[in-house]
Write a structure and sequence with these properties.
Two copies of one chain form a homodimer. By secondary structure, the first copy, chain A, is an all-alpha fold. Chain A has one domain. Helices cover 80% and strands 0% of the residues of chain A. Chain A has twelve helices and no strands. Chain A is globular and about 55 Å long. Chain A starts with a helix and ends with a helix. The interface between A and B is large, with 56 and 56 residues. The structure holds a DNA duplex.
Chain lengths: 201, 201
DNA sequence: TTTTATACCTACCAAGTGGTAAGGGTTGTG
DNA sequence: CACAACCCTTACCACTTGGTAGGTATAAAA
């Protein structure tokens, strides 16, 4: 009963939500454990430490994003279309996993060395970021710009798409839940438009 | 000597940097005070509590952004041009005040009620967000879309511009400082292009 | 001079943090 | 049955956190 992988996955889901909502520093092991109905030592049993738990969350997120990216790249060689599919899929992914967007932004903003990222450790989401930048660089409009410009555009696109989902609950309080929810359902279309506007002619 | 306003302003500058780099929860009063060469009680003397210190930081940021917005709106009635100037000025502002971008994102992501934002308290940066959304809604391309769509576009633009600056140190480690610095100097031009692409025909 | 206010200090505290040690309960396996 | 592996517990610990209490030094105002 309660096979290990299922349990571990449930822990990760709750942990991701906490890390997303409160940030790395604002998340306490006791808080995550309490929501799961276990003690914090149960958490420390599965993941050895808080940084490792955070790392596991980002690893799982990284895998989800990679799957999303490679799926988007199937069936066509055209970089612009691949990017469009990828970012549309990303914005749709955020509709389900509402914690993911805040985690992505957190992983990009957090000062390295602060959380789970020691020197030897791989930087979180790097596996996803590198092909994304490469994809931007392969688009005709940005092909001549060099790596720095492609990186800037990739981060720009990421920021445009992530912030909306990450700020959902905050914006609901500011401007009313109906407006925000209305806007959320436009997310995929906006992502498509955004890519076309920024990468197309 | 050490007139109050100057001192208070220096405290705020350091505090903003800490809040931006480590987040609200990750910032300790002792840490901020140590960098200033004073004790944390000196901080608590000027700002009564940590939430109030955070609120003071966001208030100052709010004023800077408002000044930036109104300056951008002078001399023309055309919403699209106003928005273009505003977002270009914003990206240039981030070049100087590197903490600002992370603070903006933080203020948009933080679950309300967590930091300085009690129910009665005004939501941080709201004074800046509302006219920004109104400005998007006044642009011909989005005029027919309603409030929800304008809000989504405004947040999208904000995310695109803020994340680049907020993630600077992180991206430097990932992709090398030269590439990131190179991209930073393109920020203003990218902001202009972005607005034209997304708000123009 | 006395009073008041500002700016800052030392000393202290209750609460919460991540983490360790050690053991109990259950499960499969030899 | 014995044994080990796994899951999770209670108990505890060192440390940091935001915040309070009370005192000191300076300087301006009465």
């Amino acid at each position: 009963m309660t096979p290990i992988h299922q349990t571990r996955n449930e822990l990760l889901i709750v942990a991701k939500r906490h890390f997303a909502a409160r940030g790395y520093q604002g998340t306490s092991l006791a808080g995550v454990a309490a929501e799961l109905g276990v003690t914090k030592q149960a958490l420390l049993h599965h993941f050895k430490s808080k940084p490792l738990l955070y790392g596991a969350c980002l690893d799982q997120l990284n895998q989800d994003l990679l799957h999303l990216l490679f799926t988007a790249m199937e069936g066509t060689e055209e970089a612009e279309l691949q990017l469009e599919r990828c970012l549309v899929a990303l914005s749709e992914f955020y509709l389900q996993d509402s914690a993911a967007a805040a985690l992505v932004i957190g992983a990009l903003i957090d000062a390295p060395g602060q959380a789970a990222l020691s020197a030897a450790d791989v930087l979180p989401l790097q596996d996803f970021l590198e092909p994304l930048v490469a994809l931007v660089q392969a688009v005709p409009r940005w092909r001549g710009g060099g790596f720095a410009e492609a990186l800037a555009v990739a981060v720009e696109l990421l920021g445009a798409i992530c912030l909306q989902s990450a700020a959902r609950s905050n914006l609901s309080i500011r401007f009313g839940e109906t407006s925000v929810e209305q806007g959320r359902h436009l997310a995929a279309r906006h992502a498509r438009d955004l890519v076309k506007d920024r990468l197309g002619g």
